[in-house]
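ingest -> validate -> predict -> emit
validate: passed (alphabet ok, no gaps, 248 aa)
predict: started
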Amino acid sequence: MTRIVIVEDEINIRETLQEILEFSGYDVFTASNGKLGYAVILEKEPDLVLCDVNMPELDGFALLELITQKYASKIMPSFLFLTAKVEKEQIRYGMNLGADDYILKPFDPVEILKIIQLRINKREKMLGPQSGKSSAYKERFKKLTIPTEEGLELVPFEQIIQCKAERAYCFFHLIDNKKMLVSKPMKEFEVALINNGFFKVHKSGIVNLRFAERYVRGKGGYLVLSDGSTVPVATRKKDELLKLLKYE
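emit:
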């Protein structure tokens, strides 16, 4: 499982990021300052680090310098800075130290997940097939982490037919006519679903095209899924969807 370390002294931001990333299937570790973060990074050897710039004990720049020195002979984890404001000099300084990107606070959950996935993909290409993460290992974690009243439920992506937004909540339609109501907005799961072959047919619906039975044309076109449900398709999504369906 992909490992991420969050180094952030503001507890609300740290816990929010941890929740977002764990729901997206990442293995997450946290630290409340740069000194603790350095120890966690060396112990856990993460794939990516999310780090605040201004922190007690050891700031983000000093932490990145130490990590860069420690990883001098091997590929270091992707390093993203979190900050409320950025001066050009700061950006230049951080990039010269080895930072991959800056993320401004307040951040958008969907955007931050996209940036993280992009950086992780680039790092995996650099590491190559001998990165120590075999395809068999990765396959074990082809699951979406869904919060329930009892805790976290790990649901294989291939068992999810669609995710449907319902205001601040969303419904997961699973095989065998199972449904799960989740007290989280659909956007928190969007990147993880799309990265695993799902398609966003409109602003409140993401479907697993493996379960598409047919597309019905018309002014308001819609998909018929294998469980008998129908999902409207946004006009601007129709051409892209039809192109994908031809190759399914």
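The first helix runs from residue 11 to 23.
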